[in-house]
Amino acid sequence: MAEKFTRRGFLGTAGCLVLAAALRPRGGEAAEASPTEYNWEEYSYVYLVDASRCIGCGMCVQACQRENKVPDGFFRTWVERYRIGEGGRVEVDSPNGAINGFPSTIVDFKVTKGLFVPKLCNHCKNTPCTQVCPVGASYTTKDGVVLVDDKRCIGCGYCVQACPYGSRYLHPVTHVADKCTWCYHRITRGLKPACVQACPVGARAFGNMKNLQDPVRKIIATEPVSVLQPELLTRPNCYYKGLDKEVR
Amino acid sequence: MEHSKHLARMMLLVALVLVVFHIARTLFTPSSFGKYGHYRADNVAEQMAKPVLHAGAASCEACHQERYAQVRSGAHGAVECENCHAPLAGHVAEGKRVAAMLQNRSASLCLRCHDRLDARPERFPQIQVEEHLEKMGATLGPEVCVGCHDSHDPKMGR
Questions:
Q1: Which residues pair with A45 in a beta bridge?
Q2: Do residues A152 and A136 lie in contact, with contact meaning Cβ atoms separated by under 8 Å?
Q3: Residue B156 banded pLDDT, cuts 50, 70, 90
Q4: Rounded to whole angstroms, how far apart are CA atoms B14 and B37?
Q5: 3-state class of A162 per DSSP?
Q6: Do A99 and A65 contact (CB within 8 A), yes or no?
Q7: How many CB atoms neighbour CB A147 within 10 A?
Q8: From the candidates B47, B101, B123, which should be mutated to test the interface with A, based on the most A CB atoms within 10 A?
Q9: Which whole-number Å values give the CA distances from B52 to A38, A44, B49, B59, in the listed order?
Q10: Which of residues 79-98 of B touch A (CB under 8 A)?
Q11: Whole-structure pTM over 0.90, yes or no?
């Protein structure tokens, strides 16, 4: 007990501690990434919205909320209604994200064209949201899906501000960032995202760019498609058909 | 070198800070962090393990073959059962029926798709409610649509 506290003794102990910490087994307790034989190297997911087909029923929003237990008043996907008249008249609405569809309200100008535009996370290739995350809670998987680790997120909200598409929100109960996952639990089991499955008119489609026979890949390769706000250089993995210039 | 002692103390302090930083970093970084990138690799498995609630119409067919065939051959053939009912997970769990399936007979459900809206594509079948009811001699009620139409095979005169 009477051992003298020496510099040598202290440095020795400190050195041992550092060594022990450095040699601590890492990654050993990491669960295997796949419950099945899923190999994410074989996938590069892509989403296609055909706005000209959308009827604005909001079944996609309802399915998303039920599948992912999205809290009331918050949306991982939503539908916007654009009513456009001559002379630059535009009316845009999305009552409660269109979770119950749209009411037949009247606008004070003659509507010359109208369309419904489903929106969701664009799962950008050059994503602004994950860049600003200070704790590595927001990330992109190898198969191209932008996810949030709810155990790691500190709820600072930087990513919510960084997303130019308004795809993220702070969960009112867990107080961490939440967003569309393209139903990662479904797509990795070979199912479609809940919103795609729920769409009765085929306005939403989901595909894999690494599958040469994929019909969505073929549409993106051979037909006119666009992305939202291309000038931001976010390079979305969510493509649109049948958009109007008024859609942002 | 009259200040060598001070220098040595400074060096010691720096070394101490480095040691504490390294230990703290090791203790507070989750074990799977950095395995695939700047994130916790275990979260990928956690995301994948979430339960699937919407099983899709093909799953409904397992018990309701006749109904499935009827819907598929009619005008609502592209409509998922779970859209108008509810997710299958609330009705069947581990192959066993756990609760009755929700039945929504309300006109507001029908009108989500078929109410005439100025933004809705022209080619999609839709009605102006008052006009349609007047023509059919019906009065608006909460379940007025299913009074004439069978929601599983809605086209009249088939």
A1: A208
A2: yes
A3: confident
A4: 30
A5: helix
A6: yes
A7: 23
A8: B47
A9: 16, 21, 9, 12
A10: 79-80, 82-83, 86-87
A11: no
